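Progress against Task 2.4 (sequence-to-structure conversion) is shown through the following example record, which the project officer requested during the mid-term review.
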Amino acid sequence: MIIAEWQEDRLKELVDFWNKELGDHYPMREDLFKQNSFEDKNICLLGSAIALNDENQVIGLVVAKRWNEDDLNVDMNKEVGWIQCLLIDSSFRNRGIGTALLEKAELALVEEGVQTILIGRDPWHYFPGIPYEYSNLNRWFEKRGYTNNGSDHDLIAHYNDQSDFKMPSLDEVEFALLKESEKEQLLSFLHRCFPGRWEYEAIHYFKKGGTGREFVVIKKNKKIIGFCRVNDSESPFIAQNVYWSPLLNGHLGGIGPLGVDSEERKKGYGIAIVEAGISTLRSRGIHNIVIDWTGLVDFYGKLGYTKWKSYSKYSKSLLI
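Structure tokens generated for the chain above:
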């Protein structure tokens, strides 16, 4: 076995390898893999690698990440690192390849000052943990010092042409798609109310040419007090809740993240902004909608959402 550097010129091979191993449940596309595993500035190149057999064929991969976008005024923890993905060819397992790749990733992250490693949950992630379909990996990671921290889920609802969600109508507030001219107001709202990852994702949304059609907002007295992100195939990049659209017939839409100013909660705005997101996507002819990475199963269940995919959350502390 050879452990080679992380190389974009092997993109097609890596995607073919992924799909051979995971494609039935998580079908990969070249543009998605390039977006998340090569273009992300947070990739730790020293901790990412490709395992090759004697015929120079891909038999394994690992992608490690740590926060590296200090040019952005975003509240992200530099002491947290991520293993975005770790995958070994099924015919080459139990030979120490996975252990070697994980140790390489961990060592590089330690040298970068990381104190806690998360499985998934990275910027431009694929998974918020270990997918339940591969729960046999849980014990493998536990033996290497990782701790199970519960579960998160992707939820899904299927709508037919008779399913109708109208834009909510509530006193004192209005629901509308974000206007391009309201970009700075949205970013200011997120910086104040939801600093960190959601703000980070919005910044990159606009950097990639977003015009506002992916954000439904609640406004009171013309000020934004809440938001809901909505994604589809026309969004400026492939968003997390539409990653696995090849599994479904027809277009897939995604809802989330979403939130309401803490001073405006317990007024029914939370459920209403979800309804506004559903209405927006349904008006685009979308029948399948996913809400990804959430533990609020009962909350979204009120709107007909059920579990689609589930993940076990894992972390490892590197503090002695």
